[in-house]
Amino acid sequence: MASENPRFAFTVAATDGRARTGQIAMRRGTIRTPAFMPVGTAATVKAMKPEDVRATGADIILGNTYHLMLRPGAERVARLGGLHKFMRWDRPILTDSGGYQVMSLSDLRKLTEKGVEFRSHIDGSKHMLTPERSMEIQRLLGSDIVMAFDECPRADRPMEEIEASMELSMRWAQRSRDAFDAGGDHAENSALFGIQQGALDKGLRARSAEALRKIGFDGYAIGGLAVGEGQEAMFDVLDYAPGMLPEDAPRYLMGVGKPDDLVGAVERGVDMFDCVLPTRSGRNGQAFTWNGPVNLRNARHAEDTGPLDPRCHCATCASYSRAYLHHLHKSGEILGAMLVTEHNLSFYQQLMQAMRDAISAGTFDDFARNFRRDYLKA
Ligand SMILES: [Zn+2]
Fold this sequence. Notes:
17 helices
């Protein structure tokens, strides 16, 4: 690691309305914001080599605590030299806390003040995740940005349940802070983010933000969105939630989203995103372009010799026709998944770069209007 780089330094270079652009300097590299983080669930961004992920313009990727603790196991990754060395990605990695996936993927959960007991979706083995164990796993992996352990209830639960869950998450945020700070070298070289909860309720969001501010974190995530509430409800929350969080720290909207979600969220002051959409869609033949989503399995592409997106600068668009990509996806060829994943990740990074440029130039409103006209035909 280059010693001249700071542990964590966020600077805002320009703002335009509520949108802002800047960078996060860290030991393993600098993250340009607004940033999109490709998801590398099981120590791989599916269908992509790490050097190709970097070539799309990604400054940071995300790894999943839940998946890695079950297979290959955090202790094993640590014995093999940590996640960066294991998967050959030497830039920053953000790891989630496992809290969300333990609730959405595992069987037979038992939630207590201490943490969550659950059975693996892979082999039924019994595990326990607590704030302390989540911090230990993220430290064993060698994560650069560690997420506090939280609980994310469904937004359609009764209000008393959402309130109790938010309060539990804030107690866990303090325990995460304490356990992270006890992590020695790792704590001195990495960052910890807190996660705001409170579903769609402004009062609960304010209380959650206040609790997190008191504890103090390097960055603040907006959790509990993109869980089925719809874009309008999400934007309603984003109209006020980022403003409740400290201005001098990055704000990270977890698990979002579609290209038009990203534009609307940046417009409302969000700095960081992650989502499986570009990679998962790429494997299914769903491509994102400046003119909207394209389903490559559709017969209308069968003899189309043009590129997927004439405005895209990626390697796929430079070399391959829509007709060929259509054929690969109709035939279930692995290369089809690889090429469209590469395009989608490149498109997402080109979108982030275009937003950063527009904010710097003070033309974000024009950019957003033109984007929606072409992408949403709006
Ligand atoms: Zn492309």
